[in-house]
Design a protein that fits this description.
Layout lengths: L9 H8 L6 E4 L6 H10 L4 E6 L2 H11 L4 E5 L5 H7 L5 E7 L4 H5 L25 H7 L2 H12 L4 H12 L7 H12 L9 H12 L1 H15 E11 L2 H16 L3 E3 L9 H6 L7 E7 L1
Parallel strand pairs: 1-2, 1-4, 2-3, 4-5
Antiparallel strand pairs: 5-7, 6-7
Helix pairs in contact: 7-8, 7-10, 8-9, 11-12
Length: 291
């Protein structure tokens, strides 16, 4: 499969992160390496970029694309960035970038089970070595837990109706694919507006499977410990839960005098970028400088 890789808010990220010659930077969600490629242009022959991802396929693709000795690729998640940096001999870095959420490549690979249209097994694991998948959530969680994650992680106001529809269906047979789950939700709540009625449920299940919000909290805390004075942290979020965590992290640490916010309001893509890359439309970029 050929996927055109368009790194989100690339110009704005580079302006905010402000990479300099000889700098050490962490791309905590390296993906296909679009942001890292640009950072490498700025750090010169003595700089380095540590690219981290929990998706082994992404790391393989990034390695082939970048093929640069200054690029250090490591498998891991946000909560491990401190250990991964120290393992490479870096106790402090000049910048950390988080690009949150699921990648377009993962969404388009039907066997990964992230899509409403997937006929493959319900999966949604960013790390394929994780034994826990979306299938386990959908087919084993009791009603109370399903309702909880749909409300907390999906902000789904019809959580109880959807949870009961899932449990009614799985009492007859297991729910095995993304398209099957999406159909159950569609029949339970109908369609209102342009957004697919399963959108929030799929988001909630994906966040649960990958512990995304807990990982983000831990990653942000680690980034602050790793940054040099004057070093910068930037985060691109794609839904309100992520953005709220980043916003509160920056605000709380600014109050404590640890950082200064780099923007008062999040930076969003312009019309041209949204036209070229519609999946970028919900992106919000925030950043902070350690002081």
């Amino acid at each position: 499969m050929t996927i055109v890789h368009l790194p989100v808010l690339l110009r704005e990220v580079i302006e905010m992160l402000s990479p300099h010659e000889g700098g050490i930077y962490i791309d905590a969600t390296v993906g296909l390496g679009g942001h890292s490629e640009e950072i490498l242009k700025m750090v010169g022959p003595t700089g380095s970029v540590i690219g981290i991802d929990r998706d082994e396929e992404a790391l393989e693709l990034a390695a082939r694309r970048l093929n640069d000795k200054r690029m250090i690729l490591k498998k891991g998640q946000f909560s491990e960035i401190e250990d991964l940096a120290r393992a490479e001999g870096f106790t402090q870095v000049d910048g950390v970038l988080f690009d949150l959420g699921v990648s377009m490549r993962q969404l388009k690979e039907m066997e990964r089970g992230f899509s409403f249209h997937s006929a493959g097994r319900l999966d949604m694991r960013m790390d394929k070595s994780n034994p826990f998948s979306a299938w386990d959530v959908v087919n084993t969680y009791p009603e109370k837990e399903l309702v909880r994650i749909l409300k907390e992680y999906g902000e789904e106001r019809r959580a109880l109706r959807i949870a009961r529809a899932i449990i009614a269906r799985r009492s007859q047979k297991s729910i095995d694919t993304g398209s099957e789950l999406a159909g159950i939700i569609f029949r339970a709540v109908g369609k209102h507006g342009r957004v697919h009625p399963a959108t929030r449920t799929f988001q909630a299940i994906r966040i649960e499977v990958n512990s995304e919000l807990d990982e983000l909290n831990k990653g942000l805390a680690s980034s602050l410990r790793l940054l040099k004075d004057g070093g910068r942290m930037c985060a691109i979020s794609y839904h309100s839960l992520e953005d709220r965590i980043v916003k509160n992290f920056v605000r709380d640490n600014a109050k404590e005098g640890r950082v200064r916010a780099l923007v008062k309001k999040p930076v969003s893509p312009g019309l041209q970028e949204i036209r070229e890359n519609p999946s970028s439309r919900s992106a919000k970029l925030r950043g902070a400088e350690k002081i």
